[in-house]
């Protein structure tokens, strides 16, 4: 977990300007609804580096194990909840179905799963 709930971040200078409002909104919502704070990177030992991606989405879960930057890739077509999803991974949240104890606590209703997923 991040020390003191503080997450230093740096946004790539080439980050897609059309996506900036979605990123700002996700960070603001986390700040308003949790005890986690995102602060601009200055020279902190651990930080996240946020960049646009043409290819894939990726965000590490929680604070990385090694010092330095940890990259977050946000695809250019991601908006709203999808950006928030990646930011929440950075905070430390995981998908419920990947928890080791998920088979004891989750019920899957196959009839609610769309074909092809």
TrEMBL record:
Domain Peptidase M12A: 1-117
GO BP of this protein: proteolysis
SUPFAM superfamilies linked to this entry: Metalloproteases ('zincins'), catalytic domain
Enzyme type, top EC level: hydrolase
Pfam families xref list: Astacin
Amino acids binding Zn(2+): 85, 89, 95
Gene3D superfamilies: Collagenase (Catalytic Domain) (3.40.390.10)
Protein's recorded name: Metalloendopeptidase
Originating species: Soboliphyme baturini
